[in-house]
Amino acid sequence: MDIVSAGFLRLRTVMNIAVLGAVWGDEGKGHIVHSLSGKYDWVIRFNGGANAGHTIYRDGVKYVHNLMPSFDWRSPRPKAFLGSGMVIDLEQLHKEVTTLWNANSSFPSRVYVDPDAFIVLPEHKEEDKRLNGHIGSTNRGIGPAYVSKISRKGTRIRDLMKGPSEVSNKFIKEMQSMGVHFRGLMELRREMEFDELLFEGAQGVMLDINHGIYPYVSCSESTVAGIYSCGFHFAKPEKVYGVAKCYTTKVGEGPFPTELQEKEAHELRERGNEYGATTGRPRRVGWIDLPALDYACQKGGITNLILTKFDILNGMDKVPMCVAYEKPPMSSSDFFDAKPQYITVPGWKDAKDDDQLVPFIQRVEKSTHCYVSYISCGTDAKDVKPW
Ligand code: IMP
Ligand code: MG
Question: Which residues are catalytic?
Answer without folding.
Answer: 26, 54
